[in-house]
Amino acid sequence: MSTTSPPPAPAPAPAPAPSTTTAPDPISQLFSVQGLVAAITGGGTGIGLLLTRALALAGASRIYILGRRLPVLQSAATSVNALVGRNVVIPLYCDITSRISLESTASVISSDLGYINLLICNAGIGGPQVPLPPDNNNNIADTIETFQKQQMDTFNGWEETMRANVNGVWFTAMAFLGLLQKGNETEWGRGEEKGGRGVSSQVVVVSSIAGFNKKAPGGWAYGASKAAATHVGKMLSGLVTGWGMRANVVCPGLFPSEMAAPIVEAAGGSMNGGGLIPLDRGVVPLGRMGDERDMAGQILYLASRAGAYCNGNVVLVDGGRLGTFPSAGY
User: What does the pLDDT look like over 197-207, one tens digit per residue?
Assistant: First the structure.
């Protein structure tokens, strides 16, 4: 029998000192847009309406939807407000190709609430549609002459497309800069060290993967305009940083919209069935069109604290479609 005394029990470990750092937000708060104020051009149809519904359902306090077709906007506002059970969506007439209209709309919002936290430049047009020339036509002269005439006949259409899809993005942002700056003074824009949420005001440009592909199935003018719109968004990111704001670009592939319908039908799909819309995997590798949740996920990330450190990003949301094209490589 051993006479050796057992070793003394180890002293209890000291309690950890109270943390002096701020505890991270719970995940439910990380992606919250509760109380956010947004303005969305083209917010009454297509992708704009998907974004409007997503922000409203996630708790945004006010969403101004802007466009030229006021009855369409009013119908969208009525449906979304009924869906969420509160009057959060405000329809406003606005022509993004008109300086007077843009400044007037900004003035209305300034008088109503006085600020916005998020501007989504989503409005755009499809532009003139001209078919590709035949790939294997022995009569090259006739092909060139025909194609040449088709293109020259779209001269005015190109100008209209650039005004809407490029100039409209830049000048919408310029018209709303003051409102965005005021948004930085609200709870959303103030830094967390000052009791705010630390989510600086932001411009999100909704462009398209059409700006990256060389064959331009959506139209030559459309593809060129969306390449320019993407670059406008990147330029905005460098500009507004000096005022403590941000800009990012989202480039969707095929989502339900008026502009997408002809492309979807050409790919063998239909937009009349509801739910997930299947597509040939040779067109979209994931085998379907994007849906509301796909777009909601992008905007809730960028608009919330989760994406508050993003500035100057270009996000592709296309199910891999760009990989099926000869792309521009930049």
Answer: 899 999 999 99
Residues 6+ apart with CB under 8 A from 91: 44, 64, 65, 67, 70, 73, 74, 76, 77
- Residue 46 confidence class, pLDDT cut points 50, 70, 90: very high
pLDDT at 40: 98
Residues that are catalytic: 207, 222, 226
The pLDDT of residue 32 is: 92
- Residues 194, 200: contact at Cβ < 8 Å? no
Q: How confident is the model at residue 216 (pLDDT cuts 50, 70, 90)?
A: confident
Q: Which domains does the chain show, CATH number per domain?
A: 27-324 (3.40.50.720)
CA 124 – CA 169 distance, rounded (Å): 9
Is the pLDDT at 7 greater than 80, yes or no? no
Give the pTM.
0.87
